Amino acid sequence: MRLPTAILLTLFLFSVLLETVSAQAGGISIKKTYTKPGEPLISLELNSLIERLPASGYYPVRVTIVNDGPIDRTWQFFFTSSRSNFDRGNRLKSDFTVTCNATSVAGVDLLVPVMSILNNRNSGWRSSSLMEPLRTQLDVTVRPSPPLETSWADLRTEIARGASSLWPSVIYSEEIQNLNDNALDKATADHLSGSSSGTPRSSVEFGGLFLAKSMPDDWRAYIGYDACILTDKEWNELPAGARNALRKWNRLGGSLIIYTTNPATDLNTLGFGRDTTGPPVTDPGWGTTILRPFPSDGLLEAPEVVQLVVDAVKKTGGPRISDPRDNFRSSWKLQDALGIKTSQLILVIIVLVAFGILVGPINLFVFARAGKRHKLFISTPLISLGASIILLGLILLQDGFGGYGKRLILQEIGPGNTAYISQEQIARTGVLLNTSFTTSEPGYLTPLTIGESRWARITESNDGGNGVFNVELTETGLAATGDWFKSSSEHGHLLETVRPSRERISLVGNSDNPTINSTFGFMLEKVFFRDLTGQLWTTSDIQQGRNTSMTPAEETEFAPWFNGLQQRFGPRNRARLDLARNRRGYFFGFAPETEGISSLTSIDWETTSTFVTGQLFPGNRSNP
């Protein structure tokens, strides 16, 4: 019996391996027909729109349901994103419901939240100079209305890394992949190993495939990816919504690389030149846009492409995986500003010692002397209750209810009445009676690995923690439950969004002697403006709707002010400000008291400050 069992086990493991390889090579997929031939068709198809999982953010999947039956049916989709490490580590859960009416077809794109990789290591090291890749996994369970059967699928993705670098999350088109995938994979491995020959290389994938005609039209679908590569032909094949979403992702920090087949192609012909409602688009915001000629034979110089990606991503702040995993572990000014929390440990020790003395010898020899031992059944619970009340009082005295925190926002005013927001926040909690919340607007939300302290729940020393996070996407925000906030803890978060906004600073009158007018709903403490000749101007206390004259300023005044505010942010936002600091026609303003993207209502946000930048809009206001 042992030999057949071993053979069956081997065949089973081989089949699992084949399924895993297929999943890794083609994304996640479920195709299910629930009815027999001749019966009204009821079927489900779930497919990835991008081949590889990002290291954070969202993963887009497309669902198509055919219901030729006589009754309406509902399908529930349960997703769990984890780090693929034998149920250890953090997990992010989400679920969606799709209803398909009788005799109809339902099609919907789902944005599945992906758990950020917060851990710094896997179980071991490679014998070569390359470290083990970081791993992320997405599991899905599909439950249709009974009596239809439940289905399962999963997708695993490896994030390659060298001894001192992580490979960015790259997506690339079919035309780029066709003749270049193997060469690009090899060049990526060579780059990470620091050698083109003679050094053992791990199996590394350059990026994940996408089909231009099937790309999603929501910018959040791309937020976890660092670079997108395609040809100008495929750019024009993108649905209009997907093209607009990629432009927003690009301005939010994505690196867009377009290979052109026509020498006359430039940013203007691709639609980047001017927005219909705003000023000329002379910069890509926080991102970078690169045009390169596409060879007639379709064969790219793979090492050059790899280096192009590395340089572009580095310019915009490095791989996005670094934000939640590395960028806030040390020298984060916002965490430093929160201060050090002191512990009343000595009082707790005194209470415990007193409790031990009371419940032991005093209880035994005073309250329940010989002949009255039955009083132990009364005195012991009363002493325990009293000690518990005292300990609870000490905890409340030390921590209180709710919590407090600080928020720092970087805001870019882009074309098309659109604002790009990146909010860093840290909170220290007391006793929390409710940890669920809904953000005030939809977007990107991730916990952060922060500096070591006895109160921090996600740190390098605990390998990113072991939390369960839940998120539900709503039209107005993200409904979150689970371990986003815990009692008596310190938590860091990063929130980013793209919102419609008509807030701006407009130039009034002649630019030779500029006067500005602000529509922001908060007072700007200080504003600098670099005009088209490079001359700096400045003014203070800019209030909404009032014209304010500016005076000439020198670089020696601007640089210390700019640098001081820049250093308050994490590395990515510092890099974004580096991209903007020398742009002509740009303003730079700071507001010490503003509103932020809301989260847990019981947190008292002591300070919420905003550094706002953008192009100065032409205007003709004449308000006093």
Quick description:
With 624 residues, the protein is α+β, with helices and mostly antiparallel strands. It is built from 12 helices and 29 strands.
Structural category: alpha+beta
β-sheet strand percentage: 25-35%
Distance between the termini: 94 Å
Counting DSSP H or I runs of 4 or more residues, the number of helices is 12
Shape: globular
Mean pLDDT: 86
Number of strands: 29
Helical content band = 10-25%
Spatial sequence of strands, sheet with the most strands: 17-20-15-14-28-27-23-24-26
Give a topology summary.
Elements: H1 2-26, E1 29-33, E2 42-48, E3 57-67, E4 73-82, E5 91-100, E6 104-114, E7 134-144, E8 151-159, E9 170-173, H2 174-177, H3 181-193, E10 208-210, E11 227-231, H4 232-237, H5 240-251, E12 255-260, E13 288-293, H6 302-315, H7 322-325, H8 333-338, H9 345-367, H10 376-399, E14 403-414, E15 418-429, E16 437-438, E17 444-448, E18 468-473, E19 478-482, E20 490-500, E21 505-508, E22 515-518, E23 524-530, E24 536-542, E25 547-549, E26 551-553, H11 555-566, H12 571-580, E27 586-591, E28 603-615, E29 617-619
Parallel strand pairs: 5-18, 9-10, 9-11, 11-12, 12-13, 14-28, 21-29
Antiparallel strand pairs: 1-2, 2-3, 3-6, 4-5, 4-7, 7-8, 14-15, 15-20, 16-19, 17-20, 18-19, 21-22, 22-25, 23-24, 23-27, 24-26, 27-28
